[in-house]
TrEMBL record:
<dbReference type="Pfam" id="PF01092">
    <property type="entry name" value="Ribosomal_S6e"/>
</dbReference>
<keyword id="KW-0689">Ribosomal protein</keyword>
<dbReference type="GO" id="GO:1990904">
    <property type="term" value="C:ribonucleoprotein complex"/>
</dbReference>
<dbReference type="GO" id="GO:0006412">
    <property type="term" value="P:translation"/>
</dbReference>
<keyword id="KW-0687">Ribonucleoprotein</keyword>
<dbReference type="GO" id="GO:0003735">
    <property type="term" value="F:structural constituent of ribosome"/>
</dbReference>
<dbReference type="InterPro" id="IPR001377">
    <property type="entry name" value="Ribosomal_eS6"/>
</dbReference>
<dbReference type="GO" id="GO:0005840">
    <property type="term" value="C:ribosome"/>
</dbReference>
<protein>
    <recommendedName>
        <fullName>Small ribosomal subunit protein eS6</fullName>
    </recommendedName>
</protein>
<dbReference type="InterPro" id="IPR020924">
    <property type="entry name" value="Ribosomal_eS6_arc"/>
</dbReference>
<comment type="similarity">
    <text>Belongs to the eukaryotic ribosomal protein eS6 family.</text>
</comment>
Length: 212
């Protein structure tokens, strides 16, 4: 069976606090199994004071702006947070492999609580098959016990899952709003193909939110 794309959103990150931090590579941090394949997140270490200042708990995002000639681009990566009192204030330590995306072993970056990130999940090892939109699942692949509520998804043809359509079948329905259709005018309706609310093998992306 193919892998899922599992999108995990944090509803507690609505009001972001963004701070500039110094980022350094530390030999105390080793690459995680599955990090390159996107099956887990790399680790970032910071002290308790910096965590509180950024209002982060489980996950942190680091972002830089790169300029190559006239082209300006943003590079960002998401990390699993570990607390380490030996890390100085306003500083974040990451591993060598994770730093390669940024192109430097020591740099300044914007840091903030992660709003959402995506993981690749093996369907054979997942507890998502057979679950419905609205159900809560336990997810421990990151080494952190998480409770995730399924909010939607899409299949291998790009058709969106809808909570009001039972089962895992595809149906063509007259609908007036998302998921599956975004009207340009109020009251506008269109007949669209959508997927049911059950996670089946044909579903390739599952959207979830963290429950605390």
């Amino acid at each position: 069976m193919p892998d899922f794309k599992l999108v995990i959103s944090d509803p507690s990150s609505t009001s972001l606090k963004i701070e500039n931090v110094k980022v350094k590579v530390s030999d105390k941090i080793q690459a995680q199994n599955g990090e390159k394949e996107g099956k887990t997140l790399p680790i970032a270490k910071l002290n308790e004071k910096t965590k509180q200042n950024l209002n982060v708990d489980l996950f942190i995002t680091l972002e830089i702006t790169k300029q190559e000639g006239d082209k300006v681009s943003k590079v960002k990566s998401h990390f699993k947070v570990e607390t380490d009192s030996s890390v100085p204030d306003n500083e974040v330590w990451i591993g060598q492999e994770a730093s390669e995306k940024f192109g430097s072993q020591e740099f300044e970056a914007k840091a903030y609580r992660t709003r959402a990130f995506q993981l690749t999940v093996d369907q054979n090892k997942s507890s998502l098959i057979g679950r419905k939109i609205g159900e809560v699942v336990d997810f421990g692949a990151l080494g952190i016990p998480l409770k995730l509520k399924i909010t939607g998804g899409s299949d291998n043809s790009g058709f969106a899952m809808r909570p009001d359509v039972g089962g895992g079948v595809k149906k063509r329905l007259l609908i007036s709003g998302p998921p599956g259709y975004h009207p340009e005018e109020d009251g506008e309706r269109r007949r669209k193909t959508v997927r049911g609310n059950l996670v089946v093998q044909d579903v390739v992306q599952v959207n979830t939110v963290i429950l605390r």
